[in-house]
Write a structure and sequence with these properties.
mainly alpha
Length: 154
């Protein structure tokens, strides 16, 4: 696994035969301190994996706090740029594919960055539905209701 801020897992695993042999040898020597030390060392990979998971979650949280800023700025820019292009269009017409594709990309990017552990902002599901259908009337809802509310919660 990759290092996180310079911290790297150092895992040493024993196979079951090795564990049995070491336990047998330690029992013959009747060294209770050595037995306790060995049994503790068997728990070390679990402890390190928990530590790795903890550091991973901290780093992920740090990235999530900063990464959406660029995508949010892109959605703002895209909404401002798309409005003049669709002003004369009928409500049921489709938004130009270039703008719609870019909007979908940034919406998916923000969704991915939130992951499954972060609750969705208000109106996020509605925005997803409007991005999916991609008509001018959907863009109106995104611009007026969905994006301002969702953005405030991000």
């Amino acid at each position: 696994m990759p290092a996180i801020d310079g911290w790297r897992l150092k895992l040493d695993f024993f196979d079951l035969d090795e564990i049995a042999q070491i336990r047998f040898d330690l029992a013959e020597m009747m060294e209770s301190a050595a037995e306790a030390s060995f049994e503790g060392s068997l728990q070390e990979p679990s402890r390190q994996l928990r530590e790795y998971r903890f550091r991973f979650n901290l780093k992920r949280g740090e990235l999530i706090r900063h990464a959406p800023d660029a995508a949010i700025d892109q959605v703002d820019r895209l909404i401002r740029a798309t409005r003049p292009a669709i002003e004369a269009m009928e409500p049921r017409e489709s938004i130009p594919e270039a703008a719609l594709g870019e909007l979908r990309t940034h919406f998916k990017e923000i969704t991915m960055l939130m992951g499954s552990s972060i609750p969705r902002p208000d109106r996020w599901n509605e925005m997803g539905r409007h991005v999916h259908f991609g008509q001018v009337c959907d863009f109106d809802d995104i611009e007026r209701a969905d994006w301002p509310v969702a953005k405030a919660s991000l």
